[in-house]
Each structure stands twice: as C-alpha cells, then as structure tokens.
Amino acid sequence: LSYRALLYNSLSAMAEISALFAQRPIVLRHYRRAMYSPFIESLAHTVVDIPITFIVQAVFSVIFYFLVGLQESTAQFLS
Question: pTM to 2 decimals?
C-alpha cells in the first residue's frame, strides 16, 4: 500500500510539468521585454504551490491513514 501512496505523490508532482511547458512562451516573452526574469517567475510559482501541495497531501494522508486500517482513535492518530 505504501507503493500506491508514493505513486500518487509522484504522479501529482509530474502533472505540474505540462503546465510549466505551457507557460514557457509567456515567460520567455516577458524575459525578452525585460519585465521580469524566469527565476522570479519560477520562485513565485513555487511559493504559490507550497500551500496548495501541503493541503492536497494532508487530505490524501488522512484519508489513506484510515483507509489502510491504522489506529482509528483520534488520540492515537494525533500522537
């Protein structure tokens, strides 16, 4: 079952790659016109994605925890 959890996390991270390639022409156009550098754009994208990724992973982990039948009491789950 841990293989499925790792596979889900890996595939969700790989789904970002196509979105980054779609944005590449826009980033290059902004770079050529001296609006901002690609580093700043990638940094902003990373900062925005951190809370979203954290929430998705937390929800997945809570569901997966109870799905595999680990300790079902709240006190044991939070410790």
Answer: 0.65
The whole-angstrom separation of Cα 18 and Cα 21 is 5
Q: What tens digit of pLDDT does each residue of 25-68 get?
A: 888 888 888 888 888 888 888 899 889 888 988 898 888 888 88
Alpha carbon distance 47, 76 (integer Å):
33
In angstroms, the CA 27 to CA 5 distance is 33
Whose tokens are 């979105």? That residue is 19
CB 37, CB 31: distance < 8 Å: yes
Rg of the Cα atoms in the chain: 18
Distance CA 59, CA 79 (A): 17
